[in-house]
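In this notation, each integer encodes one residue's backbone shape. One such record reads:

___
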Amino acid sequence: MKVAGIILAAGHSTRMGRNKLLLRVGGESLIRRAARVAAEGGLDPVLVVLGFEAALAEAELAGQVCVAVLNGRHALGLNTSLDAGLAAVPPDVAAAVVLLADMPLVTAAMLRSLVARHRETGAPLVASRYGGAIAPPALYAREVFPELQGGQGEGRGREVLRWREAEVRFVDWPVAALADVDQPGDLARVVPGAAEAP
């Protein structure tokens, strides 16, 4: 049973003031790191949804085992990137893990644990839980894909988890692992010593 990875990486980084996915941790850009972690986590194929500054982002992915998916509607919100990623999932894939490129503390082991929980339980939804917060990455079985598609703005993944609450299984992580990068100074706070200069 193949499980794809869908990395949402098309946003404008408006709060950062520049493309945050080009920021570096240990010499590796956030977008490249996300693609590497997804592949190391056993996700196949790894689909990276690009939009804002897509050419720059795609150049960062050179040599990575992943497929760039262009979302021409990225200005309309995160849900359009989810649509683009789901549309690119091959028919032989049974589920997809959706993750964000701006969460540098997500690891390959976390992704493997989500897939393992899905395989153990057969649950159509497996979500990450950080204390009381439910956030990406999350696994969605193919049967759920139609409910994830459509609409603009953000939050469709969360809505589906709420609609199907009784069917969701959780994997718990430390609260600190939820950290993401949105504003100047965030990366250095989340990963001490990380560089914020692209």
